[in-house]
Amino acid sequence: MLSKTLPMVSAAFQQLSRARVGLIKLYRRADLAPVVLLIAGISFLAHVLVGDNYGYFRDELYVLAMSQRPAFGYVDVPPLLPWITLLPRLLTGNALWAIHVISALFCAGTIILTGLMARLFGGARWVQGLAALGSATAIVLLADGSLYTYDVLDGFWWTLAATILIVLLRAEQPRRWLMFGLVAGLGLLTKETILFWGSR
Questions:
Q1: Is the domain of 18 the same as that of 81?
Q2: Does the keyword Mitochondrion apply (predicted)?
Q3: Positive or negative: CA dihedral 53, 60, 88, 113
Q4: Are the beta carbons of 145 and 152 closer than 8 angstroms?
Q5: Domain containing 97: what range?
Q6: What is the DSSP string of 173-191?
Q7: Using CA atoms, how far apart are residues 39 and 192, in angstroms rounded to an integer?
Q8: Does pTM surpass 0.70?
Q9: What is the pLDDT of residues 23-64, one digit of tens each?
């Protein structure tokens, strides 16, 4: 058993190392202001530290219940969030802090993307920081970052789709529409509100 497990663990660490190198390259290429990452990091820690002070929110209990019976669709909601919930539930049971870590990560990702959009529009480093600060202190993110609901993922997909759209308009590379389609698809598997992109 151990002889089979060790190569798998080693391969996982190699993949993590490659992902780390890729993220460093991506960060350098994006030329993102360090203060954006600082604000996102503070937001992440703040949400993780206070996220389990108030017990379970009703929607969190609903998602945890759905994750016990994974399916490709449910009566009233798309399936992505219950599938994501499988990992923390299998690792930690129904620990509240574990699902709130996911919310805090998506919230931090939204803040970073906001700073990146400011960068893509030609904003200086202080502009990127101001954009990230505005995102981090927005009431909707202050609330969503501490709750494990569809809304925090929905906001992330919208922000990521907007970022990709800005890149598309600047670079005119048709291939990147595939990336936009992928993000829109993930958004649709999260919440139907992403369809509003098609009505614009």
A1: no
A2: no
A3: negative
A4: yes
A5: 31-199
A6: -TTHHHHHHHHHHHHHTT-
A7: 30
A8: yes
A9: 455 555 567 889 999 999 999 999 988 877 778 888 888 888
